[in-house]
């Protein structure tokens, strides 16, 4: 989908929900963002990855008008960030990295407070609140003080509060950090539902599987710049590391395979061999043909393609921060 977006003529492209050029931000003499460009089509999920302190939250804060950039331009929901911050604010919702939930009042009261902030009538506020509490599975807890909620419940309440204003663009700063696997999957489902309703989601995450699962496009922020940007598949192609793994139960078969194949890494303990491969049908066939002709039978054959973890370490590893597109073998 994203590649077709790229090849679609300009006038047929979905309008950009977020577009930014040359965003810069420093704190004192520490440059956090050193010229960031973004182009996020409406109705898509964009994931910003990066190590701690890379500037993910800073980017979210700039795009959601909470802080000003030192340089560069951005349009959010079609409005210029600097010229029309109020219009931007009216179109977006932000769930910060740290909870905005007031623990002393109930979940329901937190929601009603948000409805007030959005100038909904009492009646409309109650209707929206009831709908969202239901949708986020918080009906039973609605009348309890939010400080009694578990981390996952608080996070759900946080996001429910963000949705009160019916935003078209949502910024979620680490929406699933600290959630158990079940709550994470629930959150993913909620995000998918939002997107299928046409909402654009800008999320930051530490979890690469989350970006892989949800995002149409992913950008890796490192050293103040976008080190790489693309679909999960495109990013995975940037790093080496694809291989076919053969496992043997018969030590003799393992040994004869090791002798016959020179370009392999063997693990004598596990009786397994790793053959570098892009995992394509053609390469697999040649490996199988070779095994047949050598009369070697492996007990198990598995194909490994690089995952986003490989990409992340290659792009943000302290080894070669200045050469993001040429990760060294040692990174793996
Ligand atoms: N108000 C501030 N004053 C000074 N430095 C700041 C301020 N806010 C952020 N920074 C610095 O800017 C850098 C980027 O911070 P930011 O919170 O954007 O990182 P992040 O990518 O969100 O990290 P994390 O994964 O830990 O949430 C950090 O070095 C941080 O210390
Ligand atoms: Mg952060």
Summarize the main sheet: 6 strands, mixed
Q: What is the name of the CATH class of the largest domain?
A: Alpha Beta
Q: What's the order of the H and E elements?
A: HEEEHEEHEHHHEHEHEEHEHEEHEH
Bound molecules: adenosine-5'-triphosphate, magnesium ion
The best one-word shape is elongated
| Strand runs, count | 14
CA radius of gyration = 24 Å
Kindly report how far apart the N and C termini lie: 30 Å
* CATH fold category name of the largest domain: Rossmann fold
Proportion of β residues? Answer: 15-25%
Structural class: alpha/beta
How many DSSP H or I helices?
12
Count the domains: 2
Q: Mean pLDDT, as a whole number?
A: 86
Enumerate the spans where pLDDT stays under 50 for 5 or more consecutive residues.
1-5, 318-332
Can you say what the CATH homologous superfamily of the largest domain is? P-loop containing nucleotide triphosphate hydrolases
């Amino acid at each position: 989908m994203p590649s077709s977006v790229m090849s679609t003529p300009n006038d047929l492209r979905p309008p950009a929900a977020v577009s930014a050029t040359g965003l810069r931000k420093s704190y004192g003499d520490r440059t956090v963002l050193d010229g960031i460009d973004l182009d996020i089509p409406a109705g898509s999920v964009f994931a910003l990855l990066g190590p701690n302190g890379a500037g993910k939250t800073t980017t979210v804060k700039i795009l959601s008008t909470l802080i000003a950039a030192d340089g560069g331009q951005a349009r959010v929901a079609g409005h210029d960030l600097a010229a029309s911050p109020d219009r931007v604010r009216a179109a977006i919702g932000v769930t910060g990295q740290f909870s905005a939930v007031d623990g002393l009042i109930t979940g329901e009261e937190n929601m009603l407070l948000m409805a007030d902030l959005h100038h909904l009538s009492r009646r409309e506020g109650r209707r929206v609140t009831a709908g969202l509490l239901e949708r986020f599975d918080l009906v039973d807890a609605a009348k309890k003080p939010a400080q009694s909620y578990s981390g996952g419940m608080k996070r759900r309440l946080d996001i429910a509060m963000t949705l009160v204003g019916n935003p078209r663009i949502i910024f979620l700063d680490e929406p699933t950090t600290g959630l158990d696997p079940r709550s994470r999957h629930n959150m993913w489902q909620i995000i998918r539902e939002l997107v299928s309703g046409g909402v654009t989601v800008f999320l930051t995450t530490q979890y690469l599987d989350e970006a892989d699962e949800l995002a149409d496009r992913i950008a890796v922020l490192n050293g103040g710049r976008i080190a790489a940007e693309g679909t999960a598949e495109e990013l995975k192609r940037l790093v080496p590391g694809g291989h076919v793994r053969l496992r043997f139960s018969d030590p003799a078969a393992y040994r004869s395979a090791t002798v016959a194949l020179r370009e392999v890494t063997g693990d004598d303990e596990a009786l397994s061999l790793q053959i570098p491969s892009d995992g394509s049908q053609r390469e697999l066939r040649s490996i199988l043909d070779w095994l047949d002709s050598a009369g070697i039978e492996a007990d198990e054959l598995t194909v490994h393609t690089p995952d986003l973890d490989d990409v992340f370490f290659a792009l943000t590893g302290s080894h070669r921060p200045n050469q993001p597109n040429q990760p060294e073998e040692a990174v793996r």
